[in-house]
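name: query_chain
kind: protein
chains: 1
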Amino acid sequence: MAVYTTINIQSIFRDDTFYAYEIFFRIFNIISLAAMTTFLKDESNEQIMSHVANVLRILLLQMQTIAEEISFKKDDLINQEPIIQVLLEYVDMNLFEIGNDIQQRLIEILEFIGTLVDNTILVSQLLDVDFVSLILKWIEMSELPFCIQRASVRLLYNIARHEKGCEALNQADAMSVLKEFKQRILDPTGNDTTYEDMRLLFSMTAALLAEPKESKIDVKSLGKVLDQLMQLTVYTTRKTKITNMAISISIENHLFL
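structure:
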């Protein structure tokens, strides 16, 4: 008689964070192998591209899961900067590809990068990658797919949560780009609930980037933002870290709107 058991992989990593840390970077090393980078640079043999793509997807999803259980250190990604750059360039090359598979792959890459950026201790190191300029370039594009827009604004928010990230964004004149994005995308969709999360992310990013003397309170917009934040807080009153709608708000990060 066969006996089956279910193994909770997440709990294994949660119970042994050292093991989780080791596995995370072993997987990163696999993604850095020549077969993967050749695929990401669009130089693979067509016969094996789909297989490599499937492997990449599995690895990214696994790393995203493991990363939630790891306490990163400041210089953890020093050896991974080249492959992170390649991943971002792959997204940049394929922004307007219309196939469902490739669009999903781009989202998975950006969500993985977002998981890294969510750890503010890693932001200063990620700034060494051509990161901020790419994201700002993307949200300036008029025909950018909605899913990429949303992922890009989320990345900007998490970058802005870090002091050096905020400095880098201001040096790149991110506020001007965001204001133009608001006028072009968010204002015309004011009654579209599909954009609700993006408007919240935009408002919090703008609040983090704005100098006190530049801040102008829009009472109506501020009220909506505070209502959404209150809903998140009520929903997760027993948690010290809120992760909802791809937004992270940690109690150690003091956010003032």
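note: Confidence is low (pLDDT under 50) at residues 250-257.
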